[in-house]
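To: structure subgroup
Subject: Chain for Friday's discussion

All,

I'm putting the inputs and outputs inline so they're searchable in the archive.
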Amino acid sequence: MDLFEKILENRGPIGQYSKIAHGYFSFPKLEGEIGNRMIFRGKERIIWSLNNYLGLANHPDVRRADAEASAQYGLAYPMGARMMSGNSDQHEQLEHELAKFVMKKDAILFNYGYQGIMSAIDCLMDRRDVIVYDAESHACIIDALRMHMGKRFVFTHNDVSSCEKQLQRATDLTKETGGAILVITEGVFGMAGDQGRLKEIVALKDKYHFRLMVDDAHGFGTMGATGAGVGEEQGVQDGIDLYFSTFAKSMASIGAFMASNDEHVIDYIRYNARSQIFAKALPMPFVIGNLKRLELLRSKPELKAKLWENVNALQNGLKERGFDLGKCNTPVTPVYMHGGASEAANLIVDVRENYNIFVSIVIYPVVPKGVMLLRLIPTAVHTMQDIEETLNCFSEVSEKLKSGYYQSQKLVAV
């Protein structure tokens, strides 16, 4: 079969909807200043789909730092991969400050979160080693596992007994191979909004020999007393051997990092992570801009406090109105409803066009058939008016859904 013919016959689980979804349900264009309200298709909407947790995307200090760094350095400097010609004092300063912020001894920068964690896992693990991972790990972790040439065992999401069972299997196998064990989970699971069971997994170190990697993309800056993440929140930051996060969430930027108390491990990644060895260094405006963002994370606790004020108002309001939020205990706010794909489409059109609220919706195969998940991301820049309008909207569309209104509507082109 011709490659292109094969693709025409199978466009993938999401791609099969591209003709009716593109530009509206997928690849929508939000315009205007990043904030709680933006323009979608010519109208202002309340936006609940941006991971701008602390509102730093348009913070005046951040905008100033970004602009000044761009004016001074442009987007080219430094040229080359860091190992060859692209290193700078500022890159190293950002690594040191990040490590200190998350209570680790050293850190390494990555250009992007997705390729960063993939490359780190790839360079750390060989065919003798075994990976034990949570079933709901992010796609970047799953893609790293696909590259792993050794064994991998998955445990039921947030099920510590299942994790222990897989650790027993991994332990038995590594006795034969002479390899090591890496457990991978997340601090905050970005779809369901629940915390990883880090405290319980760390406790398993008393019985099993393994290292723990935590992807805390949604927890960094939002969880813990100082914002150092879910490990701090649960009191087990020391038990996390490899702490990873991206700048794309609370820092509203580009880039990522991995931190550890084992400096030789970070140095090993620095010299062996192919995504960094063979890629141009993070441009200076992003580095300097990220230094400013990190400074604000440390010096402006009121940003996280305002985030959580809005989180509690939104989540408590939804619960009081009878909505199912699953097990979320983080800012990520999933609202579970029941209905098929056409009902989900009609509902989201109604929410966007008649209530002027932009919210993302997830259906099968990401969630089980018959379930629709509306995912809201509250931020520090949302207002109580935004929350009240959204709560009223959800109450009304929920009643419409129960009455069969969306089932009876024919999906129109949008």
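Points worth raising on Friday:
Residues 301-320 form the longest helix (20 residues).
The mean pLDDT is 95.

D.
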